[in-house]
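Translate structure to sequence.
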């Protein structure tokens, strides 16, 4: 008959020995694996470390705001300066009026001068008195009336004596009693002062 207590003791001892053996074997395996892992890690450490660093740098920190590229501010708009206005071209001076060198031209020129000086008179009034006094001859002279006897004969288109011409000569015209325009203007100036206008003269004056 087998002693159960001895059998149980033998089995327990055997189990403990097997467990111990298994544990030792497992420890050996772990040591070998650890050694291999260390060797492998040692061989590739610089490269792996560099890869890890690069990956870490490329990963933004938790909670960090993403990098935003600076966008240059747009240049302020500058309104174009208005083109300078061209200076207006000066008005050309009117060409001087050309008068015919005849009785009609002399009267018209005299009337323009009289208008500038404020001397009254009309074409008809001037022409009528010229035809009576000299028949339109600018070189006409009276050598028989009282003025001629006194040494101051009447001269020109409107038969003006020298003292009267000198007193009523109009500035801007030649100081020449024989000049037909000067003669007309001076005579009309005299008639304006004495009769109001050459238009009011109908006889010797």
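Result:
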């Amino acid at each position: 008959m087998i002693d159960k207590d001895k059998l149980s003791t033998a089995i327990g001892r055997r189990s403990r020995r097997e467990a111990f053996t298994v544990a030792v074997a497992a420890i050996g395996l772990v040591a070998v694996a650890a050694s291999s892992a260390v060797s492998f890690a040692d061989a590739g450490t610089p490269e792996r470390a560099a890869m890890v660093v690069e990956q870490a740098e490329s990963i933004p920190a938790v909670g960090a705001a993403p990098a935003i590229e600076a966008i240059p501010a747009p240049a302020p708009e500058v309104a174009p300066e208005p083109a300078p206005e061209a200076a207006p071209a000066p008005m050309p001076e009117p060409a001087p009026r050309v008068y015919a060198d005849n009785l009609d031209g002399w009267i018209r020129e005299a009337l323009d001068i009289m208008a500038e000086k404020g001397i009254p008179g009309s074409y008809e009034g001037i022409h009528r008195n010229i035809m009576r006094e000299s028949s339109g001859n600018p070189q006409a002279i009276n050598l028989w009336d009282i003025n001629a006897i006194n040494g101051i004969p009447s001269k020109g288109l409107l038969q003006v004596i020298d003292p009267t011409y000198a007193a009523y000569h109009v500035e801007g015209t030649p100081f020449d009693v024989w000049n037909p325009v000067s003669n007309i203007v001076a005579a009309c100036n005299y008639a304006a002062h004495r009769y109001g206008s050459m238009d009011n003269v109908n006889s010797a004056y």
